[in-house]
């Protein structure tokens, strides 16, 4: 860093010092080298969302979770525990499961190549013709384990061999949304999207409503952007809420609630929509009447999958009339999501310009500046 002229030098280029609330230069959304560093130092090192517990509800159920270039099998064991392992055979390294999800019959994970068999805890149980191989021990060849922690019905994983304590990164979430009784909620609807933009642009888009009046006229009517409050920035959790202008309102096509209040939600929470980002891949939005979340997964430096889920209490889901009304929330968020995706994809295109060396954040974008600082800190960590 060169404080005398307000710049720091990286790869032979002078960048503005972020304390002046400049944005990142364009290469942070396009450089293969920076993207690989992000995988190594963020996605292979931090706690991140894998799935909901209900997506692997029976012993033997599994879901395969892509994490950058890695693939992780998350499954439920016979003891009803959730375990995760690298999707890599210990014989010659073959990827074992090619399906996105399924069920391991008889609790056996079998490699398709030479039929080595593992149990749901990852222990090697069968290795044909290996018995007499000198020094070979099955117990030395279990599937590589991945750390798992559960919160709110969500399954989080961490690929590191020495993960930071889950509480340090996620603790700010733990008591905040108790009224919603998140573990009891179930997926009522799923909107899958695939976008042509860098993963960071979606997190940035989520943390500012400077764009709301122009991009989301309806959202800005129900929750004016001046009503945004930032109330949390601890560990990997950044968040705040927006005040609903209509009593008994919510984010729907007509601005009225889509369902009864969730579980124990009451008081101020009936007039708020929370927007929490849990770095790096979960965007969590408890509404008075439902919970919305996005699961972000980078596919490559300029492409992501973005899965949007709606959670409701099963009592609401079992009522056809209530679910008919709930369509208004799905319609509203699908429209609003697509408005966001369009500007994020346009930003991906524009930031690749040879002329774009960075811009200037507005005061309403201070959270983005904080996110950028966290990113630079993470990239500066040693391997
Ligand atoms: S590579 Fe899996 S059994 Fe041979
Ligand atoms: Fe938006």
Defining traits:
383 residues; alpha+beta; Rieske Iron-sulfur Protein; 2 domains; seven-stranded antiparallel β-sheet; 19 strands; 22% helix; 29% strand; binds fe (ii) ion
What does the model show?
This protein is α+β, with helices and mostly antiparallel strands and 383 residues long. It folds into two domains: 58-163, 3-layer Sandwich (Rieske Iron-sulfur Protein); 178-380, Naphthalene 1,2-dioxygenase Alpha Subunit, Chain A, domain 1, CATH 3.90.380.10. 22% of the residues lie in helices and 29% in strands. The chain contains eight helices and 19 strands. The strands form four sheets. The protein has a seven-stranded antiparallel sheet, with no helix packed on it. 38% of the residues are buried. Bound molecules: FE2/S2 (inorganic) cluster and fe (ii) ion. The site of FE2/S2 (inorganic) cluster has 8 residues, from loops.
